[in-house]
Structures are given as C-alpha cells and as structure tokens.
Amino acid sequence: MSPARNDGQPPPGTHRLVGPVRPLHAATLLVAWEQGQREGPVERALTLLGQALPETPREVLAALTIGERDGLLLALRMGMFGPTAPCVVGCPRCDETLELELSLADFSLPPPVETESVIRFEGLSLGVRAPTSQDLLDVRRAGDATALAAALLERCARVTEGAEPGALVPAHAAEAVAAEMARLDPQAELRLELSCAACSTDFSTVFDVVAYLWQEVETAAQRLLLEVDLLARSYGWSERDILALTPTRRRAYLRLTGMA
C-alpha cells in the first residue's frame, strides 16, 4: 500500500461525524477488554471506539464505513501505544520470518469525500455504497467467504437504471462493484506490499488494525490486572484507587514493594 499523508487535513483521529478519539486510560481499557471477551472482531472494534468516543452512540459508530472506523482505530492505537507498530510476517513461499516496523501515520487517510456512487455496467446503472460495521454484523452468519461477499453485495448495491429499480445486482457484476467499494473506502483494506529477503518473493498481506490493536489491549489489560493484584495485596487499596493512579506512580509503588 502506498503511504498517504494527512497534509492539509484534520489531525489523525478527527472525524467529521464523531470528533477526535481519546486514548483509553487504565479503567476504560479494562472495561473495553472485559466486554470484548464476549465479542467478535467487529463488535470489539466498536467497543474500543465506544470507550474512546464516549459521547458518540454505538449506532453512529456502526454506521461509519470500515475505512472510517479503522482510521479512528489507527488514531486510537497511535495515541495509546505510539506511532510505530512492530510486525512479524511469514513469507508464503519459504516461511522466512520478516520483521517490520510500520509507521502508522503513513496509513492514515482523511475521511472519504463520498461513500456512495453510481457506476455503469453492461447497460445497467448500479448504486453502490461502502460497507459499514453494521453491514458486517448483519451478514456475519451468511456462511463462507463467498456467501459473505454475496450478502454484502446484496446489501450495498442495487440496480438504479436499466432494469427494475431496486433489483439485485447480477452476480457477474460483483467484481466491478467490489472495485467501486474499494475506491469509495480506500482505508478499508490496509495492504502491505512486501519482498522476502531470503527468496526474493514479492507478496502482499493485509494489516488488520482491529486484530493488532486488540492483541495490544489484551496484553495491557493483563499487565494492569497483575499490577492491581500486587498493589492491592501490598497496600489494601481498591481497584478503583489503583487504576486512578498514573502509570508512573503505579510503577513507583510497585518498585517500593520490590515486585516491579
């Protein structure tokens, strides 16, 4: 994926519909982690954003396109864990391990100007819109990847001219519709173009911001729980009191106990 900058655009994490994201502090991180244990990836993305944007209703977040949502998650990740993301990717040909350091700002695009359009295909006019998290939630039980793609096509594209208005888009138009969805929402799939140093194979892989951020949240939550346990045992403080401490002060108290 080619890097894209935000020059002349609102700061990363600012969206015209929901505003800037707020990094999760200790207590809100644990709330998101606890709720996310019972959820799938789409719900987890909304849960994380719900804690980062507490004044925005969940249905508003669910109505954002996938790229808009992931742009906010990128801003959340940068605010919580920094602007670079270490990654390990396996070469699909020789299984060599590639270690990468991604600059996340390079993947932050401004919100799309339009999320709906009309394209022409074999004499038909097709109305197309970019999928949202709500769409993914509504079609998640469709079946395998092929059935899922068909269900999204049915939800996000309709004939507007050349046949009965509102008719389903013909299956052979799926590729054209998918290409238009990608154009409308370019941040929906963050693809890395890589080359293996061991065997010189060029390949691409998708950077899944939801999965990546959730793994970091899980790690941070487990560390927080351990800190709460140690400090509660040592000082008799409540979880609320411990989580209200800044990270620096928590670490200082842990050092005093000899457990840091």
Tags for this entry?
disordered N terminus, alpha+beta, 10 helices, 260 residues, two-stranded antiparallel ribbon
Short note summarizing the structure:
The protein has 260 residues and is an alpha+beta fold. The chain contains 10 helices and 7 strands.
Question: How do the strands and helices of this protein lay out in sequence?
Answer:
Layout: H1 26-36, H2 41-52, H3 58-62, H4 66-81, E1 84-90, E2 97-103, E3 116-121, E4 124-129, H5 133-139, H6 145-156, E5 157-161, H7 174-184, E6 190-195, E7 202-207, H8 209-235, H9 239-244, H10 247-257
Describe this structure as you would to a colleague.
The protein has 260 residues and is of the alpha+beta class. The protein has 10 helices and 7 strands. It has helices at residues 26-36, 41-52, 58-62, 66-81, 133-139, 145-156, 174-184, 209-235, 239-244, 247-257; strands at residues 84-90, 97-103, 116-121, 124-129, 157-161, 190-195, 202-207. Strands 3-4-5 form a 3-stranded antiparallel β-sheet. A two-stranded antiparallel ribbon has the order 1-2. A hairpin with a 6-residue loop joins strand 6 and strand 7 (202-207). Helix 1 (26-36) runs antiparallel to helix 2, helix 2 packs across helix 4 and helix 8 (209-235) crosses helix 10. It is globular, with a radius of gyration of 22 Å. It starts with 25 loop residues before the first helix and ends with a helix.
